[in-house]
Amino acid sequence: MCGIVGYIGKRPVLPVLLGGLEKLEYRGYDSAGVSEIVNAQFEVMRAEGKLAKLKNLLSENGKLAAGENKSAEGVNIGIGHTRWATHGRPSETNAHPHLAGKVCLVHNGIIENYVELKAQLTATKCVFKSETDSEIAAHLINSHIEQGLGLFAATKTACSEMQGSYALVVMSLSEPDKLVVAKNATPVIVGITPDESFIASDIPAILEYTRDFYVLEDGDFAEISRGAIKIEHEGVAAERKPITIAWDPITAEKGGFEHFMLKEIHEQPRVVMETLRGRLDQEHSNVHFDDVFFSDDDFAKIERIVIVACGTAWHAALTTKFYIEKFARMPVDVDYASEFRYRNPLLNDKTLFIAISQSGETADTLGALQIAIEKGAKTLAICNVVGSTIARRAGNIINTQAGPEISVASTKAFVTQLVAGYLLALKLALVRNTLSADELANYIDQVVHLPKWLTAALGQEDKIKDLAQEFSKSFNFLYLARGLLYPIALEGALKLKEISYIHAEGYPAGEMKHGPIALITEETPVVVVLGHDDGNYEKAMSNLTEAVARKAKIIAVTDLENAHLSKLAHRVIAVGDIPSQMLPIVLVIPLQLLAYYTAICRETDVDQPRNLAKSVTVE
Ligand code: F6R
What we know:
CATH architecture of the largest domain: 4-Layer Sandwich
Number of domains: 3
Oligomer: single chain
Radius of gyration: 26 Å
CATH topology of the largest domain: Glutamine Phosphoribosylpyrophosphate, subunit 1, domain 1
Largest sheet: 8 strands, antiparallel
Shape: globular
Number of helices: 21
Bound molecules: fructose -6-phosphate
């Protein structure tokens, strides 16, 4: 979690660092800090709270106007950090950068043996100012510099003593024209232009300066100077090619919307088109994935599928299971990555293991993937970030093409994960011959029309705004659905609690009577997601009626409205006649909008909700 940036070049440092941190704030936002070398000294400024506080502080101190802060001839150098607290509460002292003697650093990750290291360092008279594990790294590196090592060697030695995860960017007064980066299990990328160097946790932070990035691997150490990078892996120089990202920097801006979340909700028809682009062959009823290297024969040999993910991506996994079972008639298990990885799961070379992850950096999903690789399963990632660790490690990737998702609550990435899952299910059906030619052609044709149905769903926005106004003071919401729509009920509930802080539960509608029904009063809005032709309509209607009998206020989210439904439901959001397979992808939009506008009514911080972070790189 946490976002880190570094810069070496000719520009004033602080605007580059602050601009980068702003784009990384989604990774953590409980405190922030920057440090640069000015007149052979570190100048550090940190503040508890969001980045805006740090900016105000810097501006009050006249730091943003200066710009004349060269540490060596022609070289401006600095590092910055936005924090999501793990060790030590959010405070100015616990904020990064951390200092020790000649060393100043920022850290993203967790140093697991910090208690032991702290005891050793304290015995050598190191004085700690913060409660963080990260400060240990600064003292360790400084102690090695004091023993005569250069910055690069001192960082390597310190890392060999630390256990855990880290992306470290280290600056030293003894070598003021260099930054040293160390990476283990936490992402970090480097952008090099002819006379500048940029370091960041994620691409959008430095996208306005370059589109070519070195993606560091676990175990890499990089020595970065102005316009140059040297990477070492396991003691030997590593030749790496930069990857080129097609995203346009504007895609990572708000584009006139009040929040990134709203912008990203509205981008869904377009990003779904991107996800489909080049993958469908309607003429021959076929599906292609450029970066999936299994032959049809490999696909045909798969006996079982295991899909692993966290949070919203787990809901996409569950929907994908339903698609695969329906189209390809294969057994699919879905698991939370944090559960899967710690129970010696059953996998073999006839298992296809799929990791779904927007960021491609989620620690638990990565841990689960590692186990699948070790057990010889075939591995595939459905992932939004091409150069991410999960994408690279899985070897086979369906890139979801959602573009950078900045809002912490996932929307467009989720919808593209559903589309990727749908396409994969069709591909499996194709090689296993489980659908007739007509069925296959029909299912392919349906997904081609998806963008227009998503646009129709967005057309319900004003109605949903009113609905949010009406229910924004509720204490509890229940979300119910059956079959293919059940994961969407879970996702609707998760979205609402994440950003509006209202308690919400998603349930299979048939389970309601086994417990959750006790929660229902006339104060409880019950969102029922249902489709008129999905084989579950009558049953879902019965469950809805049971809730009405307990005086619940029903918000029905559906494709087609009818008189019976209008009579029972307090409000109906109907998006039009849409094939039932497409409904999960379309009906999640009203639920995203309901969460968004409820959060607006409650004046929460929509893009950066409390306690959350976008990229969960700790277990
Ligand atoms: C919720 C949300 C999270 C993520 C989860 C996995 O809106 O975004 O639940 O889905 O943390 O993250 P990724 O997909 O990056 O692995």
